[in-house]
Specification:
This protein is of the alpha+beta class. It has helices at about 15-30, 35-55, 90-100, 125-130; strands at about 1-10, 65-70, 70-80, 100-105, 115-120. The protein contains four helices and five strands, in the order βααββαββα.
């Protein structure tokens, strides 16, 4: 199992970089080609959500992303926006629910913010051929 971690300032321009890195790791992890567009869209939406949450409260702390390959391809995105930003009325989270089958959006333990965790199956054959 390998993890690629990325941190970036909450600027929309960095979302594209996170999306590109995430899709490259997904390919290497063995996510089927027919799911890469879904992965690309989901990573972009989750990162844009984190950036928007930070910007709404004027927070300059970094947005963190982890891409982990293993039995599944898992993407985690953490923001640190305060509790006044309601998770339940989040349009981006609703969009993510529509495109990602394995999705969790939850408050961060021990501090303000949220974690978005998304996962996709991987092909066994491509992982064995590394």
């Amino acid at each position: 199992m390998a993890t690629v971690r990325l941190e970036f300032t909450p600027e929309p321009a960095h979302v594209r970089t996170a999306r590109l890195v995430g899709v490259a790791v997904a390919r290497r992890a063995g996510v089927p080609d027919d799911q890469l567009d879904e992965v690309r869209l989901a990573i972009g939406e989750a990162c844009a959500r984190a950036v928007a949450r930070h910007q709404r409260v004027g927070l300059r702390d970094v947005v963190a992303v982890a891409f982990t390959d293993g039995d599944r391809y898992v993407v985690q995105v953490w923001d640190h926006a305060g509790d006044e930003e309601q998770i339940t009325v989040d349009v981006s989270a609703s969009l993510l629910q529509a495109i990602v089958k394995d999705l969790q959006v939850r408050p961060l333990e021990g501090g303000p913010g949220t974690e978005v965790q998304m996962a996709w199956p991987v092909r066994r054959a491509s992982r064995l051929g590394r």
